[in-house]
Amino acid sequence: MLGIPINKVTSSVQKGMGDIMGSLLIIICLGAMLGKLVATSGAAQKISEVLVNAVGEKHIQWALVTAGFIIGIPLFYGIGFVLMVPLIFSVTYKYKLPAVFIGLPMLASLSVTHGFLPPHPSPSALVVLFHANMATTFIYGFMIAIPAIILAGPVFAQFLKKIPSEPLATFRAEELPANKLPGAANSFFTALLPVMLLMLTAFFPYLGIKDKQILSLVAFLGDPSIVMLIALIVATFTLGIKQGKTMSQLAVNYTDAIKDIALILLIIAGSGAFKEVLTASGVSGQIANQLQTFNLPPLVLGWVIAAIIRISLGSATVAGLTAAGIVTGLVTQGHVNPNLMVLSIGAGSLAFSHVNDSGFWLFKEYFNLSIKDTIKSWSMMESLVSIIGLAGVLIINQFVK
User: What three-state secondary structure class fits 282?
Assistant: First the structure.
């Protein structure tokens, strides 16, 4: 119906599935295995106990938000999601707290870093496209990120306490006695190893090392899929073998983890197919051409274009890069601060995540929610982040010339 030749429809579907699963499949599968082990070994229980003892049960939500923000800066969103979900569920099971109320603020902090802060793919690419300054963009983005996370996270979550949620059983481990739990250092080290590896590889270029072979090796080791593989291998020893588990027991754990997320993988693949059909038909191009006629201030125009493409196609990265191509002329002609345009488009690219976005389905399926409740919680949180982000950009623009 969109005009794609009928013999090209299947290849569009396959390409869409391949594009999205190519980058996510290994990460989600290895992340589920790691999450299952973190849960069943008692590491998640130990981490939650340490956090609660440090800040008190009353403030556990803020502890998780802070952890999500710190972890979200170097970590790709998909990895951060599958790493943090077991921790969220461990806290909700242990202290009988509403899963959405506790979990959404942490995921809000991950989402904000994904849309606003380098080194994430979209803001990093936009910095290059607009010839902006990476450090300045990060500082402005950090200033906007804090209020966005607070308002769209803990404040908004106050209205979500009554949303029913029975999260995936794969991350629900039986509570272990204290003498069978791994140590706090072991638990934190293993759960946060992917974060530490990615941070090391992110800062490596600033050490001034020029050797091409070393740089190639670091680039290989810094790939998210390799990072997750290394983390799972280490966890197999630190939380598995070292805790008295046999390889056959661990294999059963890992197999169960993959079974539990099989449906999620198919749903995410479906959202990729949907996005590619819309792209291949030229819908995204038609939308872009129509939006160029809008008579709006440049920063607002960039946000609106990114938001409409995001709502139409689902991908924050695609929305950001497509919007950038349309407004590049405004930036290069000196009509707008390039650092703020990066953040305006980044904010727009997070607007109203719904059924064509893989993040929507990840949240819905992991938290086992209805579509209606997912829209009330996840989609509204993303929209709040987007609107608050635009407001922050416009406020900073009044002081920066």
Answer: coil
Q: What is the pLDDT of residues 38-60, one digit of tens each?
A: 878 888 778 777 877 888 878 88
Whether 150 has a pLDDT exceeding 80, the answer reads: yes
Q: Which of 32, 117, 180, 165 is nearest to 339 (CA)?
A: 117
Q: List Cα–Cα distances, 104 to 127, 193, 242, 365, in angstroms.
A: 28, 23, 33, 14
- pLDDT for residue 173 is more than 60: no
Asked if residue 213 lies in contact with residue 187, where contact means CB atoms within 8 angstroms, the answer is no
Biggest CA pair distance of the chain? 67
According to the model, what pLDDT value does residue 285 have? 67
Token pair for residue 201?
């590889």
Q: Give counts: helices (H), strands (E), the chain.
A: 19, 0
Does the model's pTM come out above 0.90? Answer: no
Predicted confidence at residue 276, as pLDDT, reads 81
Please give the pLDDT value at position 345. Answer: 95
Angle at 352 between CA 346 and CA 356, to 5 degrees: 100
How is the chain split into domains, by residue range? 6-165+181-399
State the residue for tokens 């009353």. 58
Q: Is 50 exposed, middle or buried (0-12, 13-18, 19+ CB in 10 A)?
A: middle
Angstrom distance (rounded) from CA 276 to CA 302 = 23
Measured at the alpha carbon of residue 348, what is the angle toward residues 343 and 350, in degrees to the nearest 5? 100
Return d(Cα 75, Cα 84) in angstroms, integer: 11
Give 160: exposed, middle or buried? Use CB within 10 Å, 0-12, 13-18, 19+. Answer: buried
Q: How far apart are CA 68 and CA 161, in angstroms?
A: 20
